[in-house]
Model the fold of this input.
Amino acid sequence: RKEVEQDPGPFNVPEGATVAFNCTYSNSASQSFFWYRQDCRKEPKLLMSVYSSGNEDGRFTAQLNRASQYISLLIRDSKLSDSATYLCVVNMLDTDKLIFGTGTRLQVFP
Amino acid sequence: DGGITQSPKYLFRKEGQNVTLSCEQNLNHDAMYWYRQDPGQGLRLIYYSQIVNDFQKGDIAEGYSVSREKKESFPLTVTSAQKNPTAFYLCASSTARDRVNTEAFFGQGTRLTVV
Done:
């Protein structure tokens, strides 16, 4: 089983739609969780950190479920500019590694 | 401006040659990482370092080597032993808060092509 797993997509949604991505992780010792956004041929950029209590930043909401070992990202009112690949990242406390999922591709159409 | 800088942006190498990719950060981060990304794929960890003069192998370390002689520098050498080196290489750094690594910041990447 992979340490971090994501549905690769693509998710094709119209503008204004709400879309949700999930990411599962295998190591229960994981401590830090993040969502990154990567545009084509560019470096990943931090979208948001994920906290146990959940957190929201404008149209984006991230949740952590430690019992089921998954994190989620919800995007409301999708914009064309949201089209990108969304990467789930987990920090393994016992090894200090930052492990990336393979990413979920989102395509928002007019 | 604080940040992480990779150079060069594009690199061409002949088969059988070693090549070194530069990564420098002025964020005072302790941890640094090297990842490889192939087209349409995710990031795979090559090497990482938590402190100066110490580093660990990631998932795909074969054919690569690193050094961490200074906190701000973490160069990656792609050796001739790496059978398929053409890829996008990304360097990242992060700090630790209460012994837990915080979010990582990335350089712009180096595209290596073997010709």
In short: The longest strand of chain B covers residues 43-51. Residues 46 and 58 of chain B are 5 Å apart (CA to CA).
